[in-house]
User: What shape does this take?
Amino acid sequence: MSVEHMISQFEKKAGNSAPIGGTIKFEVDGHGILIDGTGDTNTVSASNGEADCTISLTAEVLEKLRDGAINPMMAVMGGQIKITGDMGLAMKVQSLMG
Assistant: This one.
């Protein structure tokens, strides 16, 4: 899955979701995808900048999360997903998946 494809999928879902009230960066196979929900809408861009919450995972795990093939909590506990920063924002990720 290309970074552009991942961004496109996040844009579709994030655009229809309420602003998350902070910034979340997904580090997917060394590429950064930043979701900025500090304004009136969520915006998505390719960026390795700082974020309130950073979620590190592989493209394969991201696809499985999107498809509902794995449980997010089990993936975190199993080390497939690493989260740093604001855990409250991490809990809002479910609204951005799909």
